[in-house]
Amino acid sequence: MIELDGSRGEGGGQVLRTALTLSACLQLPFHMIHIRARRRQPGLKAQHIAATRAVASLCGAKVSGDEVGSRELRFEPGPLRSGTYAHEVGTAGATSLVAQAALLPLLRAPGPSRLAVSGGTHVAWAPPFDYLRDIHVPFLRFLGHDVSVELERYGFYPRGGGRIVIGTQGGSQEQDRCLLFERPERRHVRVDVTAVVSSLPRHIAERMTKVVRVALSAKHWSVRERIVELEGPTGTYVYIRVHTHREPTSAGGSWIAGGFTGLGAVRKPAEEVGEEAAREALAFLGTGACFDPHLADQVLLPAVLSGTDLTFTTSCVSHHLETQAETLAQFVGPCVEIGPRGRIRVRRDA
């Protein structure tokens, strides 16, 4: 039984989600105390319970402590199994975080699976669905995983009600290869901006994209703009995707991946929403890094579990990345090297 302290590192829900993924994939039970100890309201919330039960359903795990407010959890996994699963986070709990916890176990299950998660698709403190689709999943596909994601319904704060669906073929095996990623030349970098308004006036989206366009053009970045108008739950956001039209080779190569979001809220000006996303995008573009800080911590688990020796640069070594590396070490030993200037290596021979 692996003993974990949830107050270590960033002290939030990431330690739990990482432990759930590793436990199911490696068939190693764990016991965690002090869950979310550094949050204003410590203990499990709805989305953490949804992630726990989602992963537990994939491996028939024995679980105790999966209750709202619980600060202690015991998780004993069984064999991974394929199937069709559906989980409700409740209100606007983040569907993407539940999906990320369950994705790797689904990929290692013996056959095809389908997972539907209902809740918030574009909410604070979590990757929006766009990031899952454009940044996270393409990296998994590059590692050789057969996975698809679909947005069936948008879900905004506070009502939620969104729904995402993940499909996998399962049966993923270790790749046993080395990947080295470097920042591509500026002329190969593309910046796409998407503004979405649901049951709101179009001018809100136009104002968000204008702010992004002006901010990035000041640094000589051109952008491709798109406005999406929807009918349904009220909400709005702007999403900036940084990428390259060149696909990496089997050994890695030049690649850049970043996603940055500004979320609308009641009495929050459209210009402020655009400024938030533009500021984060420019901070990333102004460095020589190839992965944004969010992707940097998200690639550690799939690299280790697929037997990939991975080297890349990130624009910021976040607390989430350090926490991810520390939690991985609890299960498989030290395997992540954090070097100067944001250079990260994941060693398969750890």
Summary, kept brief:
The protein is α/β, with parallel strands linked by helices and 350 residues long.
Q: Overview of this structure, please?
A:
This protein is α/β, with parallel strands linked by helices. It has two domains: 2-173, UDP-n-acetylglucosamine1-carboxyvinyl-transferase, Chain (Alpha-beta prism), CATH 3.65.10; 184-285, RNA 3'-terminal phosphate cyclase, insert domain (Dihydrodipicolinate Reductase, domain 2, 2-Layer Sandwich), CATH 3.30.360.20. It is 32% helix and 27% strand. It has nine helices and 17 strands. The chain has helices at 14-26, 46-59, 95-108, 129-142, 202-217, 270-285, 293-298, 300-305, 319-332, and strands spanning 2-5, 30-33, 62-64, 73-76, 84-88, 113-119, 147-153, 162-168, 177-182, 189-198, 224-230, 235-244, 252-254, 258-263, 308-313, 336-338, 343-346. The strands form four sheets. It has a five-stranded mixed β-sheet. α1 (14-26) runs parallel beside α2 (46-59) and α1 packs parallel to α9. The chain is globular, with a radius of gyration of 20 Å. The protein starts with a strand and ends with a strand.
Number of spatially distinct domains: 2
Structural class: alpha/beta
Overall geometry comes to globular
* Major sheet characteristics: 5 strands, mixed
Tell me the CATH architecture of the largest domain. Alpha-beta prism
Question: Which stretches are low in confidence, meaning pLDDT under 50 for 5 or more residues running?
Answer: none
- The first-level CATH class of the largest domain is given as Alpha Beta
Mean pLDDT metric: 94
Provide the gyration radius in Å.
20 Å
Strand neighbour order, sheet with most strands = 13-9-15-17-16
Question: How many beta-strand elements?
Answer: 17
- Put simply, the count of helices is 9
Element pattern in H and E: EHEHEEEHEHEEEEHEEEEHHHEHEE
Q: Would you tell me which CATH topology of the largest domain applies? A: UDP-n-acetylglucosamine1-carboxyvinyl-transferase, Chain
